[in-house]
Amino acid sequence: MFDGLDALLLARIQFAFTVSFHFIFPAFSIGLASYLAVLEGLWLKTGEQRFLDLFQYWLKIFAIAFAMGVVSGIVMSYQFGTNWAVFSDKAGPVIGPLMAYEVLTAFFLEAGFLGVMLFGMEKVGRKLHFAATLMVALGTFISAFWILSVNSWMQTPTGFEMGANGQFLPGPSWWAIVFNPSFPYRLVHTVIAAYLTTAFVVGGVGAWHLLRDRDNRHARTMFSMALWMAALVAPVQIFVGDMHGLNTLEHQPAKVMAMEGHYTSHPDGAPLILFGIPNSKEQRVDYAVEIPKASSLILKHDPNAPLAGLDTIPEDERPPVGVVFWSFRIMVGIGFAMLGLGLWSLLARWRGKLYDWIWLHRAALVMGPAGFVAVIAGWVTTEVGRQPYTIYGLLRTADSASPLAAPAVATSLAAFVIVYFAVFGIGTWYILQLMKQPPHSGESGVKRGADGPIRSAGITPGPTQNPGDPDELPRNQEEAS
């Protein structure tokens, strides 16, 4: 039944599906780990119980999101060997060490301190526990550092040499590979996106509980903190995004042409197409709503600057315009919506109505998942805009896939769809149930259970004995025997 399908297309769909599921969890956990560090730091500095309560409240959610991010990420590595074996063989000498560095530095750091962070509040001193929280937050950032370095090298490959067998080999300096031309922009843009994603989730949860109880002190705190983040960081993200776009124009002009919908060159200034329907067959954007010369003003800072179009790119090297055009507008539109909500919150603070304006709370609730949509749209823009290459300009996607038949890829894709929606759907549902409960004084955090954390090996200790309870001793002795 799958014989008529294209194995390459199915492999691309499978990778897109699994990485989309995976991406939303690190995007959340990177920001949430830093938010937990801020909450614990404020508690240690001020001694206010509300910060500790919010720390314990979000710690439970972080534990689940982090676990789902780890599990979904493992699949990505296997796909390099199953569906993309040729790419792995050719690019492995470059990307393999970078991904190994991510495991050795970031993952080991996170794994080493995660247990202390989750279960060590009453076992270690406050300062040591805070240090563990900081290490987990640092580990999430280091993980993003290495993964984005790998992805950026695929976008703007530098520092390599071509081997006699067609492999990409490291050149004299690894720094040229790690800090490739697009990496700094991509790193800052993605990490800020993760922080904003978390801020709007926290703000949405705070808004939900304010709509139910306007006097909830914990909801007020997290709502206020989240909207400060939106008001201050959203403008920075727009500026960073603009800088990233200029970098992309320099190194991947075809991607920017697709983003802008410029099928033809504009020698006297290019218009900014706000909306329209890309028509690749006729090489135009139908029903275009545009601002004359605004694209040249944004990209070249000169309204009369010429901009090349896709007519200067060979047809077999052009990315799919429709997907890139719309995913880019979704990302940018959400970015400006975030900015608008942040400015609205500043007005509410100035008027002393931050906790009283119901429509502001409703807007924040609607915008709660907006960060996830924006990061997925940004990822689609980046990856589809790189087509038809896996390593931009050097290795085509069609030449990167494993020699598999369509039924094999289709079967694994169907299995992934079923398992992912079942497992991660249940996990997401449970996170939403936790968010639905209002934070309160005396939050317990992650529960250890009667016997402590489950062990994978060794002897599980029995219930903790109370030395002052003589009735407990015989029962414990009998269990031990």
UniProtKB/TrEMBL annotation:
Region (Disordered): 440-481
GO cellular component: cytochrome complex; plasma membrane
InterPro entries: Cyt-d_ubiquinol_oxidase_su_1
Molecular function GO terms recorded: electron transfer activity; heme binding; metal ion binding; oxidoreductase activity, acting on diphenols and related substances as donors, oxygen as acceptor
UniProt keywords, alphabetically: Cell membrane, Electron transport, Heme, Iron, Membrane, Metal-binding, Transmembrane, Transmembrane helix, Transport
Top-level taxon of origin: Bacteria
Membrane topology: Multi-pass membrane protein
Positions with biased composition (Basic and acidic residues): 472-481
UniProt subcellular location: Cell inner membrane; Cell membrane
Any one GO biological process: aerobic electron transport chain
Transmembrane regions: 15-36, 57-78, 98-121, 128-148, 187-211, 223-240, 326-347, 359-380, 404-432
Pfam families, per the entry: Cyt_bd_oxida_I
Protein family per UniProt: Belongs to the cytochrome ubiquinol oxidase subunit 1 family.
Protein name from the UniProt record: Cytochrome ubiquinol oxidase subunit I
